[in-house]
Amino acid sequence: MPGHPSQIAERAQLRTDAEHNRERILDAAREAFSTRGLDVPMAAIARRAGVGVATLYRRFPSRESLITEVFSDQLASCATAVEEALADPDPWHAFQSAVEKVCAMQVADHGFTGAFLTAFPQAVDFERARRRAEQGFDEIIRRAKAAGRLRADFVFADFLLLLQANCAVTDGAGDRAQAASRRLVAYLLQAFRAENAAPLPPAPPLALDHVIPSLS
User: Where along the sequence lies the DNA-binding region (predicted)?
Assistant: First the structure.
């Protein structure tokens, strides 16, 4: 039986309220992660969203589930940037555009770096998407080096160093973050060109598994 009209209306209102709560939580979490980092207390996010802690945990049973939901769109955009670069027939332009787009994402949402460089072993889809992005960027690096455009000693660890440096610079630049990021990235892209290569200290043995912390 479909139920009394008042009961149907009540259930619809409950669904609407639940969806509004979910969006408020996501908005509050996005802002909190950006300004206070991924370890901000869940209770603080609930207060910011104007909901009870129990309501937050009903929607997102763990910090991991909340973080991966908040940053799923950014990770998808990162993966898209890598895929678009892989489709570019110019290996150097592909490398340059991928670096610039990912670094611009860091500026747009400071919390993205923390999410990208954090292990979420239970979030299978999130981890799979990140690994795809990593593998795609590895291929972009390989092509640019094979074409003689990217310095031969560039490794994926250097990309991680770039992300960490860009994050630090933009975090300290305030409202000048975008300009500071563009300047830093332009400097480093020049240094990455094969024609500018000079001997460097050995690359640190970094991979995502080495630099990412875990929330578990």
Answer: 41-60
